[in-house]
Design brief:
Bound molecules: flavin mononucleotide
CATH superfamily of the largest domain: Aldolase class I
Number of strands: 10
Structural class: alpha/beta
Order of helices and strands: EEEHEHHEHEHHEHEHEHEHHHHHH
CATH topology of the largest domain: TIM Barrel
Number of helices: 15
Radius of gyration: 21 Å
Distance between the termini: 44 Å
Strand content: 5-15%
Largest sheet: 8 strands, parallel, barrel
Length: about 350
């Protein structure tokens, strides 16, 4: 897939997620084969005002890999300044958030609120396009519309393209839906139909497995799929999709050993790239993700949450996986068999 001059080999993009898709998370996804990653949304106002915390979240992918920076706001000059900062750290594209439903963002008439003001949204796209070099495409991520009666995604997407956007991502829920109900693939299909063919349209919403990816491509005709929540604790979805999109067989679920090794890599990245008291919090979050759905995960999560330091938290997880691998051997479960076991135990364990 091409976004202007940017080539994305695997048509699978990690969704920007605030407080989730930091550099360690993006790196794990990239190492497992995701096609492209984007930072979480960053306030243009905060960036342009020199806010260090926000600037600290604007991170370039490791090893020179391509990446995007997502910004939000409604002041053209601040958006321009934020976009220039993104270009300065080597961003391959600048994405503008016009989909966030959060009250504090909408109250500032940013995020999904811009879907009610296409002329202002266009002005922002034009301003950002004029602030970045021609080789850095400006893209827009938005929702199906504001509410059920105002599902203007196709017209809105066309207006953004007319203003200079070179890729459109659509999450098939409206702003008022938040994260409830279902993402509507029909809205994504209508956007694909409306937008000029050379502009890629990325479908987003509720894709959590290989079947969901294939369904999204087929039902909507979209050029790529963006995956968010489905990747939490399941970054293998990206390696599976890389294989499938290249015409090879789906390698299936990871073994426990593979899980443990990616978990260790994630923790290593957190410890290397993060500093300060939030490091332990980040490690706890990662522990919970990687055990999600496995036998006894709930008890592990509680233990890790109470761990006073990194070494103790890490030790709990290592012991947990050692015991789980031993249990799998004892019961003679294949990875598929274990998956069945995991799924069967997931509900009861989670509900406990
Ligand atoms: C915790 C969380 C944080 C999110 N933060 C952002 C964000 O910073 N920018 C953005 O465009 N969307 C954000 N989203 C929305 C996701 O990018 C995506 O559109 C949405 O989760 C639907 O995709 P999914 O069903 O694959 O998760 C966030 C979603 C979640 C769950």
């Amino acid at each position: 897939m091409r976004v202007g001059p940017v080539v994305i080999d695997t048509p699978v993009i990690l969704a920007p997620m605030a407080a989730v898709t930091d550099l360690p998370f993006r790196t794990v996804a990239e190492e497992l084969g995701v096609g492209f990653t984007i930072t979480e949304f960053l306030s243009a106002h905060a960036l342009a005002s020199g806010d260090k915390k926000t600037a600290g979240k604007m991170t370039a992918s490791l090893d020179g890999r391509q990446f995007g920076v997502q910004i939000f706001g409604r002041e053209p000059d601040k958006m321009q300044e934020a976009a220039r900062m993104a270009v300065a750290i080597g961003a391959s594209l600048v994405d503008i958030n016009m989909g966030c439903p959060a009250k504090r963002v909408v109250a500032g008439e940013c995020g999904s609120a811009l879907m009610r003001e296409p002329a202002i949204a266009q002005e922002l796209v034009r301003a950002v396009v004029s602030a970045v070099p021609a080789h850095v495409p400006v893209t827009v991520k938005h929702r199906a519309g504001w509410n059920q009666d105002n599902r203007n995604a196709p017209e809105f997407a066309c207006a953004m393209v007319e203003a200079g956007a070179q890729m459109i991502t659509v999450h098939g829920r409206t702003r008022t839906q938040g994260f409830s109900g279902k993402s509507d693939p029909e809205m994504i299909r209508l956007v694909r139909e409306a937008v000029p063919r050379h502009i890629p349209v990325v479908g987003n919403g509720d894709v959590v497995d290989v079947e969901g990816y294939l369904r999204m491509r087929e039902q909507t005709g979209c050029d790529a799929v963006m995956i968010g929540r489905g990747a939490l604790g399941n970054p293998w979805l990206f390696s599976r999709l890389r294989e499938v999109t290249q015409g090879r067989p789906d390698p299936g679920q990871p073994t426990l050993e593979e899980r443990l090794s990616v978990y260790r890599r994630h923790i290593e990245l957190i410890e290397k790239l993060k500093t300060g008291p939030r490091t332990l919090h980040e490690v706890r979050k990662a522990c919970a993700w990687y055990a999600r759905g496995l036998y006894g995960c709930n008890a592990l999560r509680l233990k890790v949450w109470d761990a006073p330091d990194l070494a103790t938290a890490r030790g709990f997880v290592e012991d947990y996986f050692t015991q789980l691998i031993e249990r799998q051997r004892r019961l003679g479960l294949s990875p598929e068999g274990e998956r069945g076991q995991m799924d069967a135990t997931f509900d009861t364990d989670e509900a406990a």
